[in-house]
Specification:
single chain, about 80 residues, mainly alpha
Length: about 80
């Protein structure tokens, strides 16, 4: 049981918490927190599907190249 818990924590949750700074968000009204979790999951899936590799590098690249980020979204 403990092993599977840490597998999930180290996989998806770590990427959301550390790379996407999910724990630092202050969205507490209504369902904003749930919406942010969905958006962060979508970002992780899109980046892993397109083989961007290391998530922090992909985040920095797409921050600097907004047209590439828009292209990624529009080609769903």
């Amino acid at each position: 049981m403990t092993r599977s818990y840490w597998g999930i924590e180290n996989g998806l949750h770590y990427r959301r918490d550390v790379t996407l700074l999910e724990d630092d968000t202050r969205m507490t009204k209504g369902r904003m927190g749930q919406a942010m979790v969905c958006i962060n999951n979508l970002v992780i899936v899109l980046l892993s599907r397109k083989k961007y590799g290391y998530l922090p590098s992909a985040r920095r690249y797409l921050d600097a190249h907004p047209l590439a980020a828009l292209d990624l979204i529009l080609r769903l």
